[in-house]
Amino acid sequence: MALADRLKLIVDNFKNLPNNKKIALAAVLVLVIGLIATLFLWLPKQDYQVLYSNLSPEDAGNVIAKLKEKKIPYSVKDNAIYVPSGKVHELRLELASLGIPSGGGVGFEIFDKTSIGLTEFSQRVNYIRALQGELARTIKQIQEVDQARVHIALPEKTIFADKEDHPTASVVLKLKPGRNLTKEQVASIVHLVSSSVEGLSPQHVTIVDQYGNLLSSPKEFTQVVQNEQMEYKKNIERAYEKNIQSMLENIVGKGKAVVRVSADIDFSKVEKLEEKYDPDTIAIRSEQRSQEKTMAPQTGGIPGVLSNQPGQVPPTTTQNIQSQKQQESINYEVSKSISKIMQQTGQIKKISVAVLVDGNYREEKGKKVYVPRSEEELKKYQELVQAAVGYNKERGDLIIVESMPFEIVPEEKPGIDYVALAMTVLKYLLPLIITLLIIFFVIKPLLEIFRKPAEERRAKEVIISEKIPPELITKVPEERDIKQEINELVRNNPKKVVSILREWMAE
Question: What is the pTM of this model?
């Protein structure tokens, strides 16, 4: 039978149905449509997630061009680009390898293209621009930050250290609506910038938001440093506690030892310059010697009375006189040593350890009786703890080990979240149940309804052909209605039809 004939038969059968069945069939169709819509809404759809948001027009255009090139479906909504959730991380990595998005600023890619003839000043300016752009991109990765700009001032280096200025940096942040930065996040930005610029100290970094509010100050930086020191102290104490407790629990049993450690940490930064002289060690630094000899002639008369008388000319004599002059100068150097000592911060000045160990228990008259540890056991435990912490008596370390009864508290077993388990099972089981219900209670009865009129017609034809003689049956085309055939039979042979009906009723 052709498809058109089947459809016509279905329509005819529907028209011949009673009104109550038509209403029931319409209600079933509405129920089927509702169940199918519920099933489609319940089934998981392809989820879209944000690939990038709040991009500059240039970056957004580059990202969309790449998505079109790779034929990846996307949607743009609320200044954000959405892609299928399964491709978000892969696309981010691939686009990042291509330098997309660039972050709306220039980074170190400025040096990818080298140009001949750049002066030293131009190279310096490009370096500062690249450093500012890279820092701005990094700061924008923080969830609360929408946009960031970094300004760095690098002073010229001089040969005079006392006249050299320190680098400074300013960061302007545009925060997302309704978002604020915590003190820890501000401190992390300060440390990020100061660690990225040579010679820049955290005190010289200023952070301002889009409303002109000062987010960083030296006082807050001091508080952050103190918090870091406290965290460092707690980490050391927790490390000692964990090591000691695990060691003792392997001896006395699980949960039968409690350890508390208090460490006194020296965070002072000491820089010491020592200059020592050794008087016992002398070395000649310089030595200078000079010697001078002279010969001078000398004339004069014979000494006596005659030479002293007036008018008398005494005879003269000539005599050579020799003179000698010698000078020596020696400089000595006393040996000396100069040492510069910088003491490392965060050293342990003193450590105190308190250990509580549970005792033993014995049964007496059906009750548990506590038995403390012996002195020998406690002494051994104390020696083990001293070795574990590096006990130093000279710095005043204190180790105390005591035995005390512990209160036995049963461990709580983690409960099962039955609600979450039921929701998970229902999520995957409900579509299957709905499908089975549609098949057995909707589709199957609907097929029965359409199939029933055709079966009834064939049954009546069989009955009529068996009861009515062949000569009374006139063949008609299949398209004629069965009701019309029966009416014609009743009009032409009423007596025979009545007899047939009586036989049916008798049966």
Answer: 0.35
